[in-house]
Design brief:
Blueprint: H1 2-24, H2 28-63, H3 66-90, H4 107-131, H5 136-141
Helix pairs in contact: 3-4
Length: about 160
């Protein structure tokens, strides 16, 4: 197990070193911009996104029923990822009259369709999960504290 960890650490260090070499080829102005973006991303994450997620999770526990929490959480995560992926193309940057093939799709409509499909899966999951055979949680819920089986003999 230790050899695997050492190999993973070496692979991570090698990948980081390769990334540093690729960055080093850029001019100082670009390196400063990359550094500013990294700092701003960390600050926005820590001061805006993380507290907002904590607040939504806290409020969701009080509003969303227990059976719906997992599918709603997954749908919310997928929605955030889709919204973040849509940012670069949502305003159609680079679209010019002389080249209509650039960003020729209706990306806002595509985003809304993808979000609708994601959120349509929430009730579909709830309906399908009720038709599945007994799950592990239901078995555990039906047991008491004294429902402990004998352990097999040690060898």
């Amino acid at each position: 197990m230790t050899a695997v960890r050492v190999l993973l650490v070496l692979a991570g260090v090698a990948a980081g070193g390769y990334g540093a070499v690729l960055l080093w080829e850029n001019p100082t102005v670009v390196l400063v911009r990359i550094l500013v973006w990294a700092v701003v991303a960390a600050v926005v994450h820590d001061l805006v996104f993380a507290p907002l997620c904590a607040l939504l999770g806290w409020a969701g526990r009080r509003v969303v029923p227990v059976r719906w929490r997992s599918p709603v959480a997954v749908a919310a995560l997928c929605s955030v990822v889709l919204a973040l992926l849509a940012i670069p193309v949502y305003g159609r940057p680079g679209m010019r009259v002389d080249n209509p093939t650039v960003l020729d799709r209706d990306y806002p409509l595509g985003l809304w369709i993808a979000l609708a499909i994601v959120w349509a899966c929430v009730p579909a999951y709830y309906l399908l999960a009720r038709r599945l055979p007994v799950g592990q949680d239901q078995v555990i819920d039906g047991q008491r504290t004294d429902d402990v089986e004998r352990q097999p003999p040690s060898r």
